[in-house]
Design a protein that fits this description.
With 115 residues, the chain is mainly β. 11% of the residues lie in helices and 43% in strands. The longest helix is centred in the last third of the chain and has 8 residues.
């Protein structure tokens, strides 16, 4: 049985124009979280939606990580949170300065592949 994990990133708080000195944030290191053993053994699929702040440095503010939605409850959230804590981003730049991005959302979909 193969294990597949899909990740979807959500928007921050605004869209920047293409003016010089501005750049949108983007992930540069987003490790795939492990599929929990119990979920593989019991053939459980699900998802976790996290929200967090990306700091000016591009690191995730680990104290800001919140689970917005998960299904089933309590199976995948620890795996997703542990992965998100290690994410790094190229920081958002506004007027030549790095700024934090509030409300970044990441969706992890845990899917088993019979292939």
């Amino acid at each position: 049985m193969l294990v597949t994990l899909a990740v979807l990133i959500g928007a921050g708080t605004q869209v920047l124009s293409a003016q010089a000195g501005n750049r949108e944030y983007y992930p540069i290191n987003a490790p795939i979280p492990p599929y929990p053993t119990i979920a593989v053994e019991q053939e459980i699929e699900g998802h976790v939606l996290l929200q967090f702040t990306v700091e000016e440095t591009g690191a995730v503010d680990v104290s800001s990580i919140v689970v917005l939605d998960e299904s089933p409850a309590g199976i995948f959230s620890n795996s997703a949170i542990n992965a998100a804590e290690t994410f790094t981003f190229s920081p958002r730049v506004e007027d030549g300065l790095s700024v934090e991005v509030l409300g970044v959302q990441y969706m992890f979909r845990y899917v088993l592949d019979d292939g």
